[in-house]
Write a structure and sequence with these properties.
The chain has 281 residues and is mostly beta strands. It has 3 helices and 16 strands.
């Protein structure tokens, strides 16, 4: 696609960046569509959550004019992220009650269209569908020091951190400042006790965050507010090095339920949807 004008003419450039996701229009023609940027300096890390906007040249004379910037707030960013790649997703929460949910239904409540763990309650609440490979999308909100988790391939009974594929941490990014020291494999987005996620990409306390979790085979990928904070293959984890040297007998499970592992804090979830990646038989 030829979108730029002849040398000497002014071009119009529009860039939308939400998290590490970038879309670009040159003279009204889209040239980049929702690409996920890599950290050029260290590809093991996500791009920084914030930073300056720079104008760069490589020796040739380039002029810029009419440069405007508008910051996108969290609610608008969530809506934008949720609008992308929606094909195949099915809502698993009706926004009214816990129909189709099992487990600790008396430990959770629906408030203003969201599922909240009741204060000082907890346990595993999980959706009825038995899944193999899937993508889950949702928004979540944590109070200061809030702690919960995602049940991944949970068998329906037991401690999901060990009997399921894993418990994926849902945790206030400043938990250690509020309640005490953390192992890196306990921070938000981590495969509990096994693989640490990157931190520093949550929105402020009281705001809703958008998260997408992809479970495929032995791999888990977590994208938080547009940033990839975990991309791990649990089959490659050296179990001799996991936190507290605890066994994870469910790590290699091929199927199970998706849900929440409450730990007494009023963590909320809403706009929950799942896309199955299982091949049709």
């Amino acid at each position: 696609m030829v979108a730029d004008k002849a040398p000497g003419e002014w071009n119009t450039l529009r860039i939308v960046m939400v998290g590490a996701r970038v879309s670009i229009w040159l003279n009204g023609k889209q040239t980049v569509d929702y690409a996920s940027l890599e950290n050029y300096y260290d590809r093991k890390l996500a791009v920084p959550a914030k930073g300056p906007i720079c104008l760069q040249t490589h020796g040739a004379p380039i002029r810029w004019r009419n440069v405007f910037v508008r910051e996108i707030n969290g609610a608008e960013a969530n809506k934008y992220l949720a609008s992308k790649g929606t094909e195949g997703f099915k809502a698993i929460f009706n926004g009214k009650d816990l129909t189709d949910w099992k487990g600790a239904t008396d430990q959770y409540e629906v408030v203003d269209g969201a599922i909240f763990c009741k204060p000082n309650k907890g346990g595993n609440l999980y959706h009825k569908d038995d899944l193999t490979d899937f993508v889950a999308r949702f928004e979540f909100k944590v109070p200061a020091g809030g702690n919960n988790g995602l049940c991944l391939r949970f068998p329906g009974t037991g401690n999901t951190a060990y009997v399921g594929m894993c418990e994926l941490q849902i945790l206030d990014d400043n938990y250690d400042k509020v309640k005490g020291k953390l192992d890196p494999r306990q921070v938000h987005g981590s495969a509990y006790g096994m693989v640490a996620a990157q931190r520093g990409y949550q929105r402020p306390i009281g705001e809703w965050n958008f998260q997408e979790v992809t479970v495929k085979g032995s791999t888990i990928k977590v994208e938080l507010n547009g940033f990839v904070i975990l991309d791990a293959d649990l089959s490659k984890v050296d179990m001799a090095t996991v936190m507290a040297k605890s066994a994870h007998p469910g790590k290699d499970r091929k199927n199970g339920f998706f849900g929440f592992a409450g730990h007494g804090d009023a963590v909320g979830f809403r706009d929950l949807s799942i896309k199955s990646l299982a091949e049709a038989k």
